[in-house]
């Protein structure tokens, strides 16, 4: 893709695990341009991983998406140079040695609900006490399924691409059933050249509906108005590069690419993933190579016998629910935060303190493929609630 942000170089749907020296150097140059020191890539340390929200792929099947519209995928966990045993972890969580530890049992419910749970506090307190740091790659799946529309429009201001993508995401997510119906009709992301005009016209109808609603509330959204104008012009394009000649009805492909990119991003770190048979098999099919050298900086471990992977299980579950919580109007999020009881607020501040410390330790530990509105709220609340009191 042209004019891509760092996250989209790392997470292009057409990515290849074999990067040339030029591509690797380009990634490093972009990171430096964004103020990221190369030491954050090259520091030798150990990252543990689990995943949450892996729906395998986002597809339209029998007229419906195979996942909820607010689905979030998280691949992440903790950076730690020391480890603990299963017995130590169970003690930290107040569990008997016979009981299985699983976030699906201990952290049931929405983000608001899990803020009340003892194991929410206990797992984060353990991370804070140990001096570990949280790292993650977070993907808003529906957003990721839409970004190629914007990237296919010629002549957009590169500095406004993320604003346009965020606005289009809001429009298309507003009524998922209507969006799915339109996209299914045109076999997205395999839109035929003859259908470009009609496909974009239907998207414009959705945009105009939102603009009209805003006008009734005396709201003007300049980004949406400019995006509308650009899509109007795009109807005259001969092709929409990234949403043609792709797999019909597959909005997002398989998720092993996110594992591959972690391996490529941190070639000098030791990466320990939870065993995921499908991912392991797919990665094993091809060597992951940088500059002619096969990378062997990663391994897979069985979570039942590894306490560090189990810690990651709790971390990614918390993060996935938190991002879903943030993916709403800021006024709605603020209202919920103001209604937190004392226990919820204390736990929320603890989470934000750890996230703030992790961001400060290594800014590359925080990676989003998500609407800039969601990302902005993430950072805003870190500043507001992540201060050490």
Describe the fold and architecture.
It contains 18 helices and 12 strands. With 389 residues, the chain is of the alpha/beta class. The protein has 2 domains: 272 residues, no CATH class; 99 residues, no CATH class. The strands form 3 sheets. Strands 11-8-2-5-6-12 form a 6-stranded mixed sheet. The chain has a 3-stranded mixed sheet with strand order 1-9-10. The chain starts with 5 loop residues before the first helix and ends with a helix.
SSE sequence, one letter per element? HEHHEEEEHHHHEHHHHHEHEHEEEHHHEH
Strand fraction: 5-15%
What is the number of beta strands? 12
Low-pLDDT residue intervals, each spanning 5 or more residues = 1-20
Radius of gyration of CA atoms, rounded to a whole number: 21 Å
Number of helical elements: 18
Cα shape: globular
User: What share of residues is helical?
Assistant: 40-55%
Strand order of the largest sheet: 11-8-2-5-6-12
User: Kindly state the mean pLDDT as a whole number?
Assistant: 89
| Secondary-structure-derived class | alpha/beta
The biggest beta sheet is recorded as: 6 strands, mixed
Amino- and carboxy-terminal Cα gap? 45 Å
Q: How many domain regions? A: 2
List the helices and strands and how they pair.
Elements: H1 6-10, E1 18-19, H2 21-33, H3 39-42, E2 46-52, E3 58-61, E4 64-65, E5 72-79, H4 86-92, H5 103-106, H6 111-114, H7 118-130, E6 133-140, H8 141-151, H9 161-174, H10 176-185, H11 196-216, H12 222-234, E7 250-252, H13 256-265, E8 270-274, H14 277-284, E9 289-290, E10 293-294, E11 298-301, H15 307-326, H16 330-338, H17 342-361, E12 366-369, H18 372-385
Parallel strand pairs: 1-9, 2-8, 6-12, 8-11
Antiparallel strand pairs: 2-5, 3-4, 3-7, 5-6, 9-10
